[in-house]
Design goal:
The structure is a single chain. A hairpin with a 2-residue loop joins strand 6 (about 185) and strand 7. It is built from 11 helices and 9 strands. The chain is of the alpha/beta class and about 270 residues long. Strands 3-2-1-4-5-9-8 form a 7-stranded mixed sheet. The protein has a two-stranded antiparallel ribbon with strand order 6-7. It is globular, with a radius of gyration of 18 Å. It has one domain: 3-Layer(aba) Sandwich (Rossmann fold). It has helices spanning about 1-15, 20-25, 30-45, 60-65, 80-90, 135-140, 160-165, 170-175, 200-205, 230-235, 235-250, and strands spanning about 50-55, 70-75, 100, 115-120, 145-155, 185, 190-195, 210-220, 260-265.
Length: about 270
């Protein structure tokens, strides 16, 4: 069953690779969210750092980091996503800055290189699994002492989503993220088994190998990306909500709620 789920996940991401960047760039809320993630990356990462990226997608973040003087090993379960990264690397002549490997989360321990300054994972790739024991140990093993692990995870508690679907009299949709065994989430026409976590739950799952340094909300006041039509209808109001989110993103209790959260881990000292 596990192998079937992994194959379905791989195929789903293979199917969307060709249109991934176009869809990304057409969604103003998603672009804003990525900007916040990049802000956090640069708060903790610096020129010269060596980065291992999980679920790298088409390499948007890898290119961003490479352009700022970092070396990136970009990994993804999808061969088509990796092919997209390779094409970008070739166009930008970034072969020295970005390398690629097709790896699913269960294969991170097979990467030969160690001593990374940081491991990063953006936009919910880690929501595709719910057992992190092997991955936690593998990520810690790949990091140098005091190395960082920065993950962007889809949150379980999303006030906007709950309010929106209750208003539409769809309570099942309003609380769909609370399903313990995950849900088959829509992925541009495909379906991917997806699990949702609170920051506290996610932090505990990595606590054997990591200390939680900081948590940021990503979309408390701002609607989730799939509600981008709201942005188009009331753009000034949504932009105000975005500004509020930028102010409160790291402040408790706001930082524990929202469509995604950014969690910054530091490798435990031996």
């Amino acid at each position: 069953m596990k192998t079937i789920i992994q194959d379905n996940t791989k195929q789903s991401f293979n199917n969307i690779a060709a249109d991934y960047d176009t869809r990304d760039n057409a969604n103003p809320i998603l672009l804003w969210m990525r900007g916040i993630v990049h802000y956090v990356y640069l708060k903790y990462l610096k020129k010269g750092d060596s980065i291992l990226e999980l679920n790298a997608g088409t390499g948007i973040d890898a290119m961003f980091l490479a352009e700022r003087g970092m070396k990136v090993l970009a990994t993804d379960i999808s061969e088509e996503m990796i092919n997209a990264i390779k094409a970008k690397v070739k166009r930008q002549k970034a072969e020295k800055e970005i390398r690629t490997e097709v790896k699913q989360f269960g294969e991170i321990d097979t990467i030969e290189e160690t001593g990374f300054d940081a491991v990063v994972s953006n936009f919910g790739g880690l929501n595709c699994i719910n057992d992190f024991s092997k991955l936690s140990a593998a990520v810690a093993d790949k990091l140098k002492p005091n190395g960082l692990f920065i993950a962007v995870v889809m949150n379980k508690v999303v006030p906007w989503e709950i309010f929106y679907y209750l208003l539409k009299l769809k309570p099942t949709e309003a609380f769909r993220r609370f399903e313990k065994n995950g849900i088959m989430a829509e992925l541009n026409g495909g379906k991917v088994l997806t699990y949702y976590f609170t920051p506290g739950d996610f932090s505990k799952r990595y606590s054997d190998n990591f200390v939680t340094e900081k948590i940021y909300a990503l979309g408390y006041f701002t609607p989730p990306p799939y509600l981008s039509g709201i942005y188009l209808r009331v753009k000034p109001l949504v932009k105000l909500w975005m500004k509020l989110d930028e102010i409160i993103k790291g402040i408790f209790p706001f930082s524990r709620l929202g469509d995604h959260f950014i969690i910054v881990f530091r490798k435990r000292s031996i």
